[in-house]
Amino acid sequence: MDWALPPNYSTFGVVIDQLFWIILVITGIAFLLVEGGILWFCLRYRGREGARAHYTHGSNRLEVIWTIVPAIIIAILGAYSAAVWQDIKGASNRPEDALEFRVVGKQFEWNITYPGADRDIETEDDNFTVRNQFHFPVNEDITILLESEDVIHSFFIPELRVKQDAVPGMTIPVWFDATQTGDFEIACAELCGLGHYYMQASVTVHSAADFDAWLAGQASAQ
Ligand SMILES: [Cu+2]
């Protein structure tokens, strides 16, 4: 449904989108019932010539029902989304041999440090740092170590269904796995100052061979 959500190019995007639609449909039905009820009562019991108002306490049974039913629905949604959250954000489920990058937000840009041959960051062979350009290969687990130099920013790639705050003083690991090559965008999703609106970086998802070629080209140009 491209008119409603950006296309999903993430391995875990399907389940996130499912949750989104389930919650939207349930809250949509509740919205229509409540607003429709208000409208109906407004019309049905509007002031009329000669009509007498009468006092009513309401219905205990109805109140119990409309408290318990939403409570059950919310508990089920909570349990379901907690499991999804654990899959995506849980430390124990993070892929171990992922290709690692460091992404540092600052007012108002993203700096991306690329790994060397050992695929890990914070080692001696770290390659180089590039401003506002994030390149990585398709169909491979990617981990970024997310940091901020100044204020809270938010790392957001809508097509990969990834959104995580970058918090000063913290290094937050985030992983994802893109299922398609293409050009996307990191948009800062946290109002972080006057230049927030132009805090964006290009994202290029390459085939494995293209990524190796790009990396080699960049490394030799540094
Ligand atoms: Cu920002």
Radius of gyration: 25 Å
Give the amount of beta strand, in percent.
25-35%
Summarize the biggest pleated sheet. Answer: 5 strands, mixed
Order of helices and strands: HHEEEEEEEEEEH
The SS-based structural class is: alpha+beta
Intertermini distance: 42 Å
Q: Which strands sit side by side, in order, in the main sheet? A: 3-2-1-5-8
Q: Treating each run of at least 4 consecutive H or I residues as one helix, how many helices?
A: 3
- What ligand molecules are bound, each kind once? copper (II) ion
What does this structure look like?
The protein is α+β, with helices and mostly antiparallel strands. The protein folds into two domains: 13-91, Helix Hairpins (Orthogonal Bundle), CATH 1.10.287; 99-221, Cupredoxins -  blue copper proteins (Immunoglobulin-like, Sandwich). It is 34% helix and 27% strand. It contains three helices and ten strands; from the N terminus they run H-H-E-E-E-E-E-E-E-E-E-E-H. It has helices spanning 13-44, 60-89, 208-221; strands at 99-106, 109-114, 128-131, 133-137, 141-148, 153-157, 162-166, 172-177, 182-187, 200-206. Strands 3-2-1-5-8 form a five-stranded mixed beta sheet, with helices on one face. Strands 4-10-9 form a three-stranded mixed beta sheet. A hairpin with a 4-residue loop joins strand 6 (153-157) and strand 7 (162-166). The radius of gyration is 25 Å and the shape is elongated. The structure holds copper (II) ion. Copper (II) ion (CU) binds at residues 105, 153, 188, 190, 192, 196, 199. Residues 105, 153, 188, 190, 192, 196, 199 line the site of copper (II) ion.
